[in-house]
Design a protein that fits this description.
This protein is of the alpha+beta class. It folds into 4 domains: 54 residues; 88 residues, Immunoglobulin-like (Sandwich); 98 residues, Immunoglobulin-like (Sandwich); 154 residues, L,D-transpeptidase catalytic domain-like, CATH 2.40.440.10. Helices cover 16% and strands 37% of the residues. The strands form 7 sheets. It has a 5-stranded mixed β-sheet, with no helix packed on it. Strands 1-2-6-5 form a 4-stranded antiparallel β-sheet, with no helix packed on it. Strand 25 and strand 26 form a beta hairpin. The longest helix is centred in the first third of the chain and has 26 residues. The chain is elongated and about 100 Å long. The N terminus is likely disordered. Pathway: Cell wall biogenesis; peptidoglycan biosynthesis. Keywords: Acyltransferase, Cell shape, Cell wall biogenesis/degradation, Peptidoglycan synthesis, Signal, Transferase. It comes from Streptomyces johnsoniae. This is Ig-like domain-containing protein.
Length: 419
């Protein structure tokens, strides 16, 4: 910009000087021949312009985003390119920390991009040096700020990338901010399956979106999920920043059916009975939910305190507090587990329901006896396996209580899609 202003100033000054000299010659007696002084000034002006042009690089640098931009995405929004030249050096730094951001210049030296995702809510500076075919340098810099955590949302997903899961595991997204533009966000999720099953989303709330097929996933299939949230407007001045994919494998098909009336659980794998296990379900005062439940968490040992799920005595103390419950697997957000039980008499299992709503299997304290039913079932189970409870006096579990959307028929599930 400054070089252009200098050239314009030189041209203007030369023109003015030439005009002054011409007027002096006309007033000096009407000589038709141009004066030597005027000719020399014009020639000098052309030489100056030529010198200026000779010193100016033809390389044209382009930087995205524009200088002073705010709310810049952290994945692919930062790009540097050059025309009529090559990139010599690109330096990108976080201005507050001074740390340099790694990036790569393309093989033909005409473009550059950061190597990794940037940080949110961070101010960056880019300084670029390029040169043309004559070695003349061009420089350009810009400063910008990435989207802040306050103005962006994060989608936390289940299952984990690379995990092998049971046939009942949905793709569940939980957002850290309410989503107003549900259709835009749902459309930014792409799910592909090796089984070819149709997968549909269902909004349980403005912060939770689950996906599943009409029937359980087909055993031994592969599922890939792409979250294209980067730059997508969620409404209320909130945009997405994630641009990533994850995949998981559906393992063998294991479905276990708990009959609360007969106090037995039948474990079926790939359509074949695997084992029948005596159990103790919820008591008449605290029955176990009926319905289809998905194992969402596996804990070799965990503490269970009744106060955390509303089971308290008159003094507000938990009705139970067991510090080392073995082989616990979560079935609901509200606290339903299927777990080992070492404190009850062996005669309880297969004959009576005594729990506060959980499903108990005979086990050993310390979770160290592999021959116990609780240990065997824990080792044979995956996150995403199905546990269905029947013949309990309680109501059916709500579809949003845990990963239990299978308790909703397909038409109602589809109706919950924003698309």
């Amino acid at each position: 910009m400054r070089d252009g202003m200098r050239r314009k100033g030189l041209i203007t000054a030369a023109a003015l000087l030439s005009g002054v000299l011409t007027l002096s010659a006309c007033g000096g007696g009407g000589d038709d021949e141009p004066s030597d002084q005027g000719g020399e000034s014009s020639e000098q002006s052309d030489a100056d312009r030529a010198a200026e042009d000779a010193d100016t690089s033809t390389a044209v640098i382009s930087i995205t985003p524009e200088d002073a931009a705010d709310g810049v995405g952290i994945n692919d929004d930062v790009q540097v390119s050059v025309e009529e030249g090559t990139l010599d050096e690109v330096v990108m730094t976080a201005t507050e920390s001074g740390s340099e951001v790694a990036g790569t210049i393309s093989g033909d030296q005409t473009s550059w991009a950061p190597d990794a995702q940037l940080d949110r809510g961070t101010r960056y500076q880019l300084a670029v040096r390029a040169s043309d075919g004559e070695g003349r340098e061009a420089h350009q810099s810009t400063t910008f700020t990435t989207v802040s955590p306050e103005n962006s949302f994060t989608g936390y997903f289940t299952p984990e990338d690379g995990e092998t899961v049971g046939v009942g595991m949905p793709v569940s997204l939980n957002f850290d901010k309410p989503i107003e533009n549900r259709a835009e966000i749902e459309a930014a999720v792409e799910i592909n399956t090796s089984s070819g099953q149709e997968v549909v989303g269902h909004w349980f709330s403005d912060t939770r979106l689950d996906f599943r097929p009409e029937d359980y996933w087909r055993a031994n299939s592969e599922v890939t999920v792409a979250l294209g949230f980067d730059g997508v407007d969620a409404g209320a001045d909130v945009i997405g920043w994630q641009d990533r994919s994850f995949s998981f494998t559906v393992g063998r098909a294991q479905v276990s059916t708990v009959d609360a009336e007969s106090h037995q659980m039948e474990v079926v794998r790939d359509g074949e009975p695997l084992r029948t296990i005596p159990i103790s379900a919820g008591s008449a005062e605290n029955p176990t939910y009926n319905g289809i439940m998905v194992i969402s968490e596996k804990l070799k040992e965990t503490r269970m305190d009744g106060a955390t799920v509303g089971f308290t005595d008159d003094d507000g103390e938990g009705e139970y507090d067991i510090p080392d419950v073995p082989h616990a697997m979560r079935l609901s957000t509200s606290g339903t587990f299927i777990h080992g039980n070492y404190w009850a008499a062996n005669s309880v299992f297969g004959s009576s329901n005594t729990s506060h709503g959980c499903i108990g299997l005979a086990d050993a304290q310390g979770a160290d006896d592999p021959d116990k039913d609780g240990a065997w079932f824990f080792e044979e189970s995956l996150r995403g396996d199905i546990v269905t409870v029947v013949n309990s006096p309680d109501r059916e579990i709500q579809p949003d209580n845990g990963l239990n959307g299978w308790n909703m028929n397909w038409a109602d599930w589809q109706a919950g899609s924003a698309l």
